[in-house]
Write a structure and sequence with these properties.
The protein is built from five helices and nine strands; from the N terminus they run ββαααβββαβαβββ. By secondary structure, the chain is α+β, with helices and mostly antiparallel strands. A hairpin with a 3-residue loop joins strand 1 and strand 2.
């Protein structure tokens, strides 16, 4: 089973490193800068529970699971080791034949620089290089206009498709409609 690899040298001088518990202080700092976007990217966070503990548990679980090929999560860093965000392949799928769901979160000051797009491309290239068949989901809340645009661009670059109907996703006890985008690898 492949471990989550380092994906160095992305366009723009960024790199993807397997998520580790050691980045917790950087993740907390990024969270406090913009809790709203962090909660949009990590909708399972609970308002009435300690954020530090929840983020610590998340990083611990992701680091542990990265060896099992169930999930693959990376932290995004620049050349000065600044924490820019997270990108990952999770195991919470909505469609029966999917293998991973793709999610990402980029800190506010680093948005609109194609960092998320470059990171997505690096992750999908890595999956494609594994010589297996994968179906990747990207779920986006229909009011997240930037997220919808990004998902559509990913589908365009990777020959993906947009599922026409909304899919209800359970978040903190509520069913929330989402658009699902699907990318099948290898590309045809």
């Amino acid at each position: 089973m492949p471990r989550t690899p380092n994906l160095p040298d992305l366009d723009g001088g960024y790199s993807l490193r397997p998520v580790a518990k050691a980045i917790l202080p950087m993740v907390i700092e990024a969270y406090t800068e913009d809790p709203e976007s962090a909660r949009a990217a990590l909708p399972w966070l609970k308002n009435d529970e300690d954020i530090t503990r929840q983020l610590s548990d998340m990083l611990h679980d992701l680091e542990h699971l990265s060896n099992a090929d169930r999930v693959h999560f990376w932290s995004i860093h620049d050349q000065e080791n600044t924490f820019i965000g997270l990108i990952g392949l999770g195991d919470e799928m909505q469609l029966v034949h999917s293998h991973y769901n793709l999610g990402y979160w980029v800190r506010k000051e680093f948005r609109h620089r194609r960092i998320a797009s470059n990171a997505v491309d690096a992750v999908l290239h890595w999956l494609e290089s594994r010589d297996s068949i994968f179906r990747i989901e990207i779920t986006v809340h229909p009011r997240n206009e930037a997220g919808l645009i990004t998902a559509e661009r990913i589908c365009h670059r990777w020959n993906g498709q947009i599922i026409d109907e909304f899919i209800g996703i359970e978040l903190n006890g509520k069913t929330v409609p989402h658009k699902i985008h699907v990318v099948d690898l290898p590309r045809v």
